[in-house]
Specification:
Elements (H helix, E strand, L loop, with lengths): L8 E8 L5 E7 L11 H8 L9 E3 L4 E4 L5 E9 L2 E3 L6 E4 L2 E6 L2 E6 L2 E2 L2 E2 L5 E2 L1 E2 L4 E3 L8 E3 L4 E4 L5 E9 L2 E3 L6 E4 L3 E6 L2
Parallel strand pairs: 2-7, 9-19, 11-20
Antiparallel strand pairs: 1-2, 3-6, 4-5, 5-8, 9-14, 10-13, 12-16, 15-18, 16-17, 17-20
Length: 196
């Protein structure tokens, strides 16, 4: 539901159970791969050689990975499902679905159509900003996130007259129910300071 993951698996183990049934456990670790098992496909290939006399392979075609929620955070639990076994000896094994952790980072948003207004030299670096037609870009469909311009300020790099001078924008923020999932990148603006 919250998107696909690139899953890295680092080891496997067979543990004997009663009546000769073995349990297959796929351990997952996104940060510490070993044995060159860099994907579920690699793990599937590795499984076929674990017990020399048996034929049991991991089928990953229907596997899914799901975060518990969509909130931004580090080390969030990810639940895997849909892994199955195939092969002539697959019936002698039971498969334990693994869990792992991964990060959800804030999605970057940018501001389009913001403007810094030209001015006549007044000895200050203050720049007047206009957000009359400004729009956020990059938000996911159906998400509620708005641009909050109250408190936004603009500043020229220096007070000298010149054309196309960079203006630094600060004080912009995000609002709305889904704002916590996003990070705002301030717009890069320019404006002219004319001679008096």
């Amino acid at each position: 539901k919250w998107g696909k993951l690139d899953i890295v698996l680092h080891s496997i183990a067979f543990a004997p159970k009663a009546l000769g049934v073995k349990t297959l456990i796929a351990h997952v670790d996104e940060l510490r791969p070993v044995h060159n098992l860099m994907s579920m496909t690699d793990l599937a290939a590795a499984l076929s050689g674990v017990v020399v006399t048996d034929t049991a392979t991991l089928v990953t075609s229907g596997a899914t990975a799901t975060f518990a929620d969509k909130a931004v955070g580090n080390g969030k639990t990810v639940t895997l499902a849909g892994l199955t076994l195939a092969g002539g000896d697959a019936g002698n094994y039971s498969l334990t679905q693994p869990t792992t952790t991964a990060h959800i980072t804030a999605k970057a948003l940018t501001v389009a159509n913001a403007r810094a207004l030209d001015k006549i030299y007044d000895g200050s670096t203050v720049a007047t900003l206009s957000f009359a037609t400004a729009q956020l870009t990059g938000a996911l469909p159906g998400e509620t996130v708005t641009l909050v311009t109250t408190g936004a300020t603009g500043a020229f790099a220096d007070a000298n007259a010149g054309e196309g001078k960079p203006v630094t924008v600060s004080g912009l923020s995000l609002g709305g129910a889904d704002a916590a999932g996003y990070a705002l990148t301030p717009p890069s603006l320019t404006a002219t300071i004319s001679r008096r």
